[in-house]
Model the fold of this input.
Amino acid sequence: MKYLSEWDQLKRYSSKSWKRFLEKAREVTSHLELWRDNIRSIEGKFGTGIQSYFSFLRFLVLLNSVIFLIIFTLVLLPVLLTEYKITNSSFVLIPSKDVDAQCRVYPLSSSGLIYFYSYIIDLLSGTGFLEDTSLFYGHYTIDRVRFQNFTYDLSLAYLLSTIAYLGLSLLWIVKRSVEGFKINLIRSEEYFQSYCNKVFAGWDFCITNRSMAELKHSSLRYELRADLEEERIRQKIAERTSEEKLRIYSLRLFLNALVLGLLAACFYAIYQATVFSQEHMNKETDKMVFGENLLILYLPSIVITLANFVTPILFAKIIRYEDYSPGFEIRLTILRCVFMRLATICVLVFTLGSKITSCDNYSCALCGYNQKLYPCWETQVGQEMYKLMIFDLIIILAVTLFVDFPRKILVTYFSSSRLIQCWGQQEFSIPDNVLGIVYGQTICWMGTFFSPLLPAIATLKFIIIFYVKEMSLLYTCRPSPRQFRASNSNFFFLLVLLIGLCLAIIPLTVSMARISSSKACGPFTNFNTSWEVVPRTVSTFPSSLQSLVHGITSEAFAVPFFMIICLIMFYFVALAGAHKRVVVQLREQLSLESRDKRYLIQKLTEAQRDMRSPRE
Done:
């Protein structure tokens, strides 16, 4: 430092002080991390594979909380400020002269004598008294909110909030996926390096608590067991003969055909259940008993949940005969289950879309959608997403309370029975549990446009699931004999979540750009589609800014931009390949140097032995 100038010394001192401040801030914020002690305890008792599931669940809680803050700030807060007269503001709704009055008819549930069980049905299905609340799209039949100094365009804010939470989710998932991919790439390059890192650098010497030391020791032991198990499977695969390979590949081909048959049967059942439910939901509730009414409303949700419950069990049974490694087995099971679960939502949504856009009368052709059956179709789609969310939570709680805990009691106190011994104590199934929360998050992404408060419900749901799953894990489950790496799990969980996000964007994009928006409810009553609010807003810009926007969105800009992006991508791919070759060469050089040192030590030992022999 004494050879540096005063300015350089000040910069060096400021840089070190800033780094120290950041380290202290990270240390302080780590203690404020949600469920920090709970997840560490789970890691020590059950391994990092199960710990990664609970970390993933914590990430979804944070993500949905941020999504709810975006929706609340951009959409709900201006409406609440005006409804409760907190500020000097008023609603502005400009009726369109081009829309027929018949398209604006939106009959809500009539008030009067209502049976008590109707409130239960409304609470579970989002109908009745919940239909005209801020929970659903139809409540926001407002074009603008006029404050004292400016006018707030609620329709534009509603659309931008949807784009904002989808973009935020994409960036956040990609960022975490890249971090996990780096660790996964480093650890998958050399298996011996993984053992060395765990044995020589895996211990945390800052641990002073004996219980925490036991948890860390147990966690390292589970990691080593997972590595050894995968090494045994790789050795078994390498020793297969040609006849064994032919037999296993033929068996896998047959089992994959069986899996496709199961998926097709489930999709057809969901399609038929949705059509049946939509055709019978317009019956008067007083003509049906409580159970029949609830069954009709929840029939698609019941079929979807039943398919999601049965198929993972069948997939787990099938994959045992395919003879994969534990890591690949869990990834393939998750891929099959994620395709099943997420595709069921897409089948439901596209079936509803086909019913909404099927026009067979004059009013339907006039309004652009089936106005007679779906006067506010966005709210009814939101109700379907709401029912899926609520029913999924009910099933999780019911399985935990009425299946997991009774099974634990039977295994503990009636272990002498052969049937109970065959049933055995439950293991925590990582694929099934991960797919459960990815399924719930996909419903949240897909339904937030139609039900703006769905992220708040999803946040509360995931918090409940965390504590329920923790209790079930600690009191009813045993550690699985087949362990999995947390690095692979974290990256793969995020990859599955990214697939769910992409599948959620597709129907949302179609509904906003292709299907006519409802003329009787919502903030887009003055537009043919929800996306038309963007061109209208651009048309209010100055001419120079309009020219710039049109130029950016034109083909003349899109084609060169795409070509430049492709060139940049190819450059980074080539750079990554060059770095990988350098890493391989450096590892080979290290290996050669170790052999040279071993050879020199051997020669030195022989020379010392030769020098001693003449003396003797």
Observations:
- The first helix runs from residue 6 to 31.
- The first strand starts at residue 90 and ends at 92.
- The two ends are 60 Å apart (CA to CA).
- The chain is about 75% helix and 0% strand.
